[in-house]
Write a structure and sequence with these properties.
Helix content is 26%, strand content 33%. It has 3 helices and 6 strands, in the order αβαβαββββ. It has helices at 6-12, 20-26, 41-52, and strands spanning 15-16, 30-35, 56-64, 68-71, 74-77, 81-88. β4 (68-71) and β5 form a beta hairpin.
Length: 100
């Protein structure tokens, strides 16, 4: 998989998640990203290592199911979201505020 072009890595990391909980996790060398529903843990690890030049020790993923909401009297559904919590090697960090 090391021969894949870098554009595939950009497609795997949709956006960083910047919330109060993810800021607390950053103190433990963890960064939270939004990823596609089809992304696997090895793909996420490879993408983060290639894009940010860091060593990843673990990847945990979670899928948040979309809520059913009413909009102007009609039923709608929010999209399902997959998040990846990436644990970095001690001493390394990613500054998600600056971007790539």
């Amino acid at each position: 998989m090391a021969t894949e072009p870098k554009t595939i890595h950009y497609g795997l990391i949709t956006s960083p998640v910047i919330t109060e909980k993810s800021t607390i996790l950053s103190e433990q060398n963890k960064v939270v990203f939004r990823v596609p529903l089809t992304a696997t843990k090895p793909q996420i690890k490879e993408a983060v290592e290639a894009l940010f030049k860091v060593n990843v020790t673990a990847v945990n993923t979670m899928v948040t199911k979309g809520k059913i909401k009413f909009f102007r009297g009609r039923i709608g559904k929010r999209a399902d979201v997959k998040k990846a919590i990436v644990t970095l090697k001690d001493g390394q960090s990613i500054d998600v505020a600056t971007g790539l």
